[in-house]
Specification:
chaperone; disordered N terminus; mainly beta; 5 helices; nickel cation binding; Urease accessory protein UreD; seven-stranded mixed β-sheet
């Protein structure tokens, strides 16, 4: 729940000074391993510096390792950068999610994640919420190593603080996700919104949140099937409240190891978008991973 502005510009400046400039460049690294098929996946390495922190929950009944990403103060202030390196060893499964929506306050902030995956990575962060005059950049690069490597990745964002009159009031938002298998590009998904190009609110029409969810690889075939459920458009009054457009991902000929699916979702409420994401993820238990959106409540 949003508790209003994070303070005046002076308070934010004092807070940044208190953290130290070096700490504004948060870095983290994770390594998930599973040395024996009879054992659960574990984190053999976990390191983070402010503003990034890790929480390591346990989910009974799941053999996947899990990490919750938390940022200092629940969001990113001007100058914050977060760089995360993830390694998932063969046979291991790693679930990475966030505690809540990542707030991006006024100024420039950036996050990047680089993953080397020989097992299965399930990356399910909450949508990002950019506030007035925020400029946010996010890059996710996943390198699938070997024919069994697989991933599920979610990327989403909301209109910001609509309740405070900040609907689509940020300066710019740029996200990019690239997935490769053994160096061959399988997916390049990019989205860019910039107020310099015209009113963002007008271009977003009635929608308040967007999400892109995809699954690639043999280890996440059940999730792929869930993503490819029929297209949906629910009508509430004259306007559709939710639009979901799934499609298979094209893969190189004779490369069944890279079979994938993608769904793009737009909704008039962030909750509606997350509900649809969860519906598409209903087969997560079949790959021994819990739904973090449900499990944390």
């Amino acid at each position: 729940m949003d508790d209003g502005p994070r303070g005046t510009t002076a308070n934010e400046t004092n807070e940044a000074i208190g953290r130290g400039q070096a700490e504004a460049a948060g870095r983290g690294s994770l390594v998930a391993t599973r040395p024996d098929a009879r054992m659960a996946s574990t984190l053999s390495h976990a390191f983070a510096t402010s503003p990034l922190r890790f929480v390591r929950p346990t989910f009974p009944g799941s053999s996947a390792a899990a990490v919750c990403l938390v940022t200092f103060g629940g969001g990113l202030v001007d100058g914050d950068t977060v760089d995360l390196d993830v390694t998932v060893d063969p046979g291991a499964t790693l679930l990475v999610f966030t505690q809540a929506t990542t707030k991006v306050f006024r100024g420039r902030a950036r996050q990047s994640l680089r993953a080397r995956v020989a097992g299965t990575l399930v990356l399910l962060p909450d949508p990002v919420a950019c506030f007035r005059d925020a400029h946010y950049t996010q890059h996710v690069d996943v390198d699938l190593q070997g024919p069994s490597a697989s991933c599920v990745v979610l990327d989403g964002f909301t209109s910001g603080r609509a309740a405070y009159g900040e609907r689509w009031a940020f300066g710019s938002l740029e996200t990019r996700t690239v997935v490769r298998r053994d160096g061959k590009k399988l997916l390049h998904e990019a989205f860019r919104l910039d107020a310099k190009d015209g009113s963002i609110a007008e271009r977003m029409d009635r929608f308040e949140a967007f999400a892109t969810l995809f699954a690639i690889g043999p280890g996440v075939a059940p999730v792929r099937a869930g993503i490819l459920s029929h297209s949906r458009e629910h009508a509430r009054g004259a306007d559709g409240a939710l639009v979901a457009a799934p499609s298979p991902l094209p893969v190189p000929r004779r490369d069944s190891t890279s079979d994938g699916a993608i769904v793009r979702i737009a909704g008039t409420t962030p909750l509606g978008v997350i509900d649809e994401v969860q519906r598409r993820l209903r087969n997560l238990p079949e790959i021994d991973v819990v739904d973090p959106f449900t499990a944390r409540h």
